[in-house]
Amino acid sequence: MSIAFFAGVLFIVVPLALRDRLDHAQGIRQFRGLHSLLNPAELTFYLALVRAAGENYLVLPKVSLASLIRPSRRLDAHAQQVAENGLRHERVDFVLCRRDTLALWCVIDLDSGKPRSTEDRYRAEVLEAAEIPVIPFASQLSYDPDALRHRIYGSLVHEPAKTQEYPLPLSSVV
């Protein structure tokens, strides 16, 4: 039995070790670049959303929550660090912002139809607490930019996101 065990280990371990050596020798990398920042469903929505946004707004895909939200200054240092870590690991699907100042207007959530996860609920709670409007859209095969525009503007009957804006004169940017 010990010979069979040794032979079995030999036939499993040796090929794996040789493969790893060959991969390293051939320069096989552990990572690979993606073809696109967005998957096909996201790209279809993004292109329609860009048309719907018009020339005064930009659509930014896959934005980290940490780029949109800061923890309250009233939290102690440890609680702030925990909150910042949570924000860094989450992202929103799309952000609609003003082209001239990049001021946040709203977050666009593309619902894939999968059940909501804990991360989805956390993201929704954080955005609500920060008073950032979120407009959900269901994933579809195609989108009408005019219908998207009407839905977005119809959803934003109030002011855009209540965030700190640091407007710069255009002359200081150019």
Comma- or semicolon-separated keywords:
globular; alpha+beta
Can you put this structure into words, describing what you see?
The chain has six helices and four strands. With 174 residues, the chain is an alpha+beta fold. The protein folds into two domains: 1-31; 40-157. It has a four-stranded mixed sheet with strand order 1-2-3-4, with helices on both faces. Helix 4 (118-129) links the parallel strand 3 and strand 4. The N and C termini lie far apart (78 Å). 17% of the residues are buried.
Largest sheet, described in full? 4 strands, mixed
Radius of gyration: 24 Å
What distance separates the N and C termini?
Answer: 78 Å
Strand content: 15-25%
Q: What is the helix content?
A: 40-55%
The average pLDDT score comes to 80
Strand order of the largest sheet: 1-2-3-4
Q: SSE string, helix = H, strand = E?
A: HHEHEEHEHH
Q: What is the general shape?
A: globular
User: Low-confidence runs (pLDDT<50, min 5 residues)?
Assistant: 165-174
What structural category arises from helix and sheet content? Answer: alpha+beta
For the record, the count of structural domains works out to: 2
